Amino acid sequence: DPDSGDNGRLRYSLVNQHTNEFDIDENSGQVFAVSVAGKAGTFPLEVQAADQGTRQLTARTTVEVTVDSSSSNNIVMVVLDQQINVVERNIADVKRVLAAKLAWSVFIIDVYANELGREARSSTDVTYIKILAFDEANQEVPAADVKRKLREQKSDIELELEKVFSASVTAAVQEPPADSPAPEPVATIVLGVLLACTLVAFLVYVVLTVKRKRKAKRRAQIAGGTDNPCATDDKGTLQSSGKPEH
Q1: I need a labelling partner for 45 at 20 to 30 A (CA). Which of 25, 128, 203, 218 fits?
Q2: Do 47 and 76 share a domain, yes or no?
Q3: Residue 15: which of 1, 37, 38, 31 has the closest Cα?
C-alpha cells in the first residue's frame, strides 16, 4: 500500500474455511501450517489485506497451499513446556526462531497438546510441535540431522523463545509417537466392548433367575406335599398326601 501512516499499515487475515489447518501472521502476511497431519492435497486459502485507515480498504487474493504427505520419515518433534494456546498465538515467532537457529527452512506440520486429548487448549503445560526442515536446494533434511542440530542449538533456541514467550522455556527433542487410532474408531471399539459385556451380564442374570425360580418352585411343591407323603399342614401336624396304591 503506497499510502502513509495508518492508511498504509496493513493487517492480513484468512477469510475461508481452512483456518483450523492454517494461519497467517497479521503483520507480515506469512501463511503457515497449524495442523495438517494426516492430510494431503491442495488447500485454497483466501487471504485479505486491510489497511488501518478511517475508511478501511481491503483486497483479497487466493493462495493455494499443497500438502504432501510423503515426508513423514523426516518429521521431527519439538516439545515446549508451554500451553498450546500460548504457543499457537506465537507460532510464527517459534517457526522464525527454529529456522534461524537451524539455518534451514522450517515448516510446522502439526501443533497439539497431547495424543489423546487434542481438544484441550489449556489443560497441560506441554505442547508438541512437528516440523520438517528443507535445505537451500529445497530438499528435505534427514530427521537425524535436524535432531542433532536442535540439540546443538538447544541453549540458543531456548534463549530466543524466552524472548517470544516472556517466560522461561525448555525445548526438547522427542521421537514422534506411533499414530494412534482416531477418536471415532476408539470410541466405537470401547462402546462395542461395553455392549458385549452388558449382553453377557444380562444372559448370566437370566440364566441365574430361571434357575432360582425352578428351585423355588420345587421347594414350594415339596412344602405343599406334592412330593412328600408326610408333609405337615398349616398347624404343623403330619398329614398324608393320599393312600399309596401298594
Answers
A1: 128
A2: no
A3: 31
